[in-house]
Amino acid sequence: MASATDSSLLSKLESSDSTGIYPLFSDYLRPFSDLTNSKKSNQHSLIRPLAKKFLPFLNRALSILPKRLSDPQKLNDRFALQLFDVYRLSLDCLESLSSQLSCKPYSVHVQRVRMVHCMETAGQYSDAEAEGFRILESFKGMDFGVRKSAKPEGKLVPDVVNGGDDKEFVLLVVEVVVTLVKCAALGQMKDDDVYRRVLVLTEEVRPWFRLLDANAYEKLHRVLVTYLGKCTLFLVGELACFDGKLVRTLCYASLSEYAISSLKDQIYKVTCISFLATHFMRDHYTYLNPQLTLQFGRRICSSIFSLQEDMSSLIMDISICVLDSIALECKFETESTGIEYVELVSYCANKCRTTSTNLCITMATHLDKIAGDSHQVRLPFGMILRLYAAGLHLVSSDLKSRGGHLISSGDAKNDKSAIRILIDEGNILQNVAALLGCCGSYFRNGCKEYGMTSSADYADPVSQSCSHLSSGYEACKPCTQKNEKAYLFVYLNALRFICHPLAELVNSERKQLINPTEGAFFTTKLCIIQDAFYQFGDIFLSYQSRTYESERDGFDENTKVVLSVAAAAFTLSIRTKLNMKRSMHLVKNIITSEWIQPQGLKHLVATFHNIGVLLYRNKQIKELEWRKCNDRFGHNYFQAKALVFHCLVDLENKASEALKLCCKASWTCVKHLCDSFVEKSTGLAGDLSESAILEFVNDSCARTAFLLDVLHRCDNHKLKKTMAESLEHWSFAGKVFEMLPGPVLLVKQWVKLECKHCANADVDSAQTLYFLLSSSVKVSKRTIGIILEQELLAYEEMSPLYQEFCQKMQLDIIGILLQDVYVAPDCCLQKSRILVKKARVLRVSGIEVVNPLLFVECVLVDTKFFLKQNKVYGEECSSGIPACHQLAATYCLRALCTQEAEPNSKKIFQDIRAALNLWSSVAIPDNCSADGPCFLVPENIVLLLYNVIDLLSVKGCTDFNHDIYRLMTRLFKWKNVPPENFLAMLWECRRTTHALCISPVNEELIVNLSEYYGERSVSVAFWMHCLKGSLPLIVSFQQSFSFFFSNPQGSSNHKSSFRSDITVGEVKEAAFELISSVPVPSRSVFVAGYLYYDLCERLISSGRLIEMPSKGFSRSFRVEAKEFHVSVNDSGFVKFMEWSQKSVSSILLGKFGAVWLVNMAGRLMAAQGERSFTSKANDMHRPFLAQRCANKAGRYVSIVEYGEGRRKGVVMVLEGVDGEGWQTLAGLF
């Protein structure tokens, strides 16, 4: 039975409070010191009693210690060291008693190995490593009953001959070696000798691994491979601290062990990912997750390529070592093997391209070498490796001066074109052509649905070159359906590696490529690049069509590149004049694909719009050059004219094709945005700005308007189809957004082109937009009405230039609206409005017509009948709010028409009273929602009420003012219009008073405002706050009330920013701000006029007639880089000045000259199709000459003033985009 001392020590060892335990153990085991001091002859007599006394105690202690040390986090460092000292002491005592034990000679070593594991778990890697090597050294001297061989010199692991027959001993030796490798990996010592020992251990332990059974081999070899790889990762990451040869050797050893391990399938991923995986196996009995292996292995190359560029030689050596060892060990036995190896090559190639140009040649050469070894690489992987090699050659071919990237400097004067340099490297592109031909043959079968072809399918010089070059490769069997999808993605990535930099190069040098200067050789080489783009696009679309969205891992990067490639392919089609239809087909497939996102579509919109504009400007420049030198051709004039005409038509056609793609992408994007907005409203999408979508729709209309202008010049038969499709797309957006503005720019461009077309042709051949849309099922009657009213307004604006034609078209449109569009019973208001419009058009044309009052009365009768039929008249009007509003508005229209026909009729006041009664009878709930009936009130009701107020003011009637102001207040309240906007609108239109009221704000308006906004509506501060958004309105308000607060002290009593002492200069400055832009908005002119009118009243009342404002006039406008200023002095002379960066010039005109200037601008716009344009005038005994000219910047009109036998001044006004400059000149005054 154990003594009390034994029990107390073991109890203390097991307890949590074991402080100071080592001195107790040392004192208790002091008798063992006699063995070390005694002679060998006496040791035998001493060992036996010691064994009898201490052996149970030691066995018990050695069973407790591993448990106590199994969780080092519960122990402080000092106490853990004491326990390890106790562990060593106990093992030393047990080993001294081993002669008395009936066990195998390595039994005590098993206990020591357990202690090594405890040290490793506690993080004492150096102590564990030292103890492990002592164990291995002691293994060499063990006797297993076999003849001992000579002790190996310099070996760390014992010879397998001694103990190789004992399976337990074999397992123990391998376990010690694996633990030592693990300690080296986790210790991360920056000492070369540590990892040299690891290499020796790995090499010497191989014979011992062969003696293990399958399960033990599997477990221990996994751990060895894992931590050997971790050692490799550490050395690669700290490459500057270690010998390069050691790192290469360790990489090779790690990959070799991976190749013979159960992790063989993961070896090809050993070199490519970021530093994401930081936690690895800590227990060798844990199964190794393949994903962790992927993360672990790919860190090697990431570590290598993150090093400094001055270590490029060592970086490349290690990379090549990795690629060679993988290719040598694995020999592409399976499809997954080859695919993963190609992924590794892809990563290394991309890193070489972005890290250093110096690495590209070496890597490319080595990839060609690996691909050429048929014993290592089989098809199609060899071809794909050669593609990566060719891509690296493209980067490195004489482009090192550009930093290793295929990007042009853009300086044509100082640098040779980057694409010119690339074309000069003919061998590289020929090699690419051959590879593409071979790969195209291999992958073509599975991609027929997208028309994928190789170069051999085209009868041009490039196809012959590719066919000849590809004959040097072995015959390529087409990929089968079984392995096609597995290979397709890696081939797509290889094509992207080549095409992406080439596409960036082509797009960056688009201007140089579109202006051809080189010969057929240059074009032939460009066709090779073009074929590469087509193959990438075809493979991309084929892969996308057969892959589910959840399977498109890594697909996003290709979607970004394909947009750039498609634009580059289109650019090369323009340059080579080949495969234009194929390029457009590729772009259209991309635009209509389900995977395309609005952002990608916007990129295509911008790209093809720029291409179209560039081509169109080139056409204008060539047209100008022809006009300048057409007199130099002599007898070859007609031949040269035909050649130039063909060139101009070709440029216009290409520009139209680019703009068609731009508009197709633009309207497709509109549809996507509308769909996303609908999903957002149902909670299925993220935030989308409605205003941003509406702005994009308007931009799409502007782009289509430009396309229509180009089509009008080159392809008029497609103009109508394009217009109809665009309006259908716009109508789709109109269904989603009720507040979408009409397609004004689109309709104006159509009207402008119709005017030009019919000016010198048969007027009867003109068609309205109704004939384009009437057969469409996508456009509703409501939308057709909106579009036709826009067309009606556009023809009204063009009337000054094409009066007869525009009047005819207006009457045609009005007839269609009345007979075919506004035929529903609820369109009475629209009918009455159109009837009034018809009367106005007929009167302008000089035709006597029946008074519109009769038409309005007919509409009024129909409206009443409709309301009675639907029981929404009188007291039940609240259930039919839109119809009631229409009836009330019709009453107002009849009152206005009656004033014109019978000014003294009492029916005017009766109709106004009937309208106000109808509006006041509409009961609107306080909680009316945005979708409720109260928000269906027509927007032009307020404008109609303005006209009624003016009519009553003219007739001197104030009986209805209170009701009208109350109704207006209710309307704005229903629409949730803030009081700031409401009052600012009323003050701007001067509807706050009437002709018989001396106050700027009518008392009835104040009373109605107080019902909704309280007493604050009476204060000046409230009004100043509402008008603060516009300085001219603030000045106007202060000037109007300056009569009431003429005393300077009076204004100081108001706690606001109101000033009664507003100066004349401030009023003039505010008025000038309103009318300084060109064209001047009518609202600004109205406000400026009232500012001057109130100022005149103010100055007259104070007797300051000399300060009355003069009839001065000033306008400023800008066309591209030039600024223009027009001013009229007090004497009535007009000074027209032009500013540019280099000069300032001006001309002086009188009143007649000013009229001639405006009329000349109008005739200039109408003479677009004429060959030349000149206009002359004589004003103030000075002749003026206006002549249309052109240069490389575009067309302009030169206006020259002559006098005293010489030219006195000249002003040149640019045409601008869409004739903006000349339009501004025509509307100058």
UniProtKB/TrEMBL annotation:
Gene Ontology biological process terms, A to Z: meiotic chromosome separation; proteolysis
GO cellular component: cytoplasm; mitotic spindle; nucleus
Regions annotated as coiled coil: none
Pfam families per record: TPR_ESP1, TPR_ESP1_2nd
Highest taxon in the source lineage: Eukaryota
Annotated ranges, domain Separase-like TPR repeats region: 6-271
Domain Separase-like second TPR repeats region: 312-513
InterPro entries in alphabetical order: Peptidase_C50 (IPR005314), TPR_ESP1 (IPR056933), TPR_ESP1_2nd (IPR056932)
GO MF, one annotated term: cysteine-type endopeptidase activity
Name by which UniProt lists this protein: Separase
Organism per entry: Morella rubra (Chinese bayberry)
